[in-house]
Design brief:
Elements (H helix, E strand, L loop, with lengths): L5 H17 L8 E7 L2 E8 L12 H17 L5 E12 L6 E11 L4 E10 L4 E15 L11
Antiparallel strand pairs: 1-2, 2-4, 3-6, 4-5, 5-6
Length: 154
């Protein structure tokens, strides 16, 4: 795999942000993806009471979804031709999240050919880490350009 050139790289990042925004699941989790640079993605979102479990804090699905997405897009920022698939993901939940802003920050760790490894962490409004996770992601057979939400000019 050859890394995208600087001009194509920015178009790829914006197209991935568009792809994220177009995913139907994000109708349940209001959030915004920001690809800062190759291998680094942030998702800004609000935990709301509708995301709570019975004991009054965010349910684990919120943690997993945001950690997986941040790590995934950190990895897919390095892959310009194919959609990645999550093949495994480990979570460590360290503190409960209450209503308020949270940032999921994903970073690529290694791999660029067939399998990529990336991690992510959730940071609450006080700057405290609430969770972290590490995932493995595999190149699929699905061309990014074939996905309607991937509005790339690259």
């Amino acid at each position: 795999m050859t890394p995208p050139d600087a001009s194509g790289e920015q178009a790829h990042f914006r197209a991935l942000e568009s792809l994220y925004a177009s995913a139907p699941i994000n109708g349940l989790f209001e959030s915004r993806l920001e690809i800062v640079e190759a291998g680094l993605a942030r998702i800004h979102f609000e935990v709301q009471e509708r995301h709570y479990h019975a004991a009054g804090a965010a349910h684990g699905t919120s943690y997993f979804k945001m950690l997986d997405d941040a790590a995934f897009y950190a990895g897919n920022s390095l892959v310009t031709d194919r959609f990645l698939l999550t093949t495994a993901f480990n979570l460590l939940l360290t503190r409960p999240l209450k209503a308020g802003p949270v940032v999921a920050e994903g970073r690529w760790i290694s791999g660029q050919r067939r399998v990529l490894i990336a991690d992510a962490r959730l940071i609450d409004a006080n700057g405290e880490e609430a969770a972290r996770g590490t995932g493995t992601f595999m190149r699929s057979r699905i061309p990014l350009a074939s996905l309607p939400g991937y509005a790339s000019e690259a």
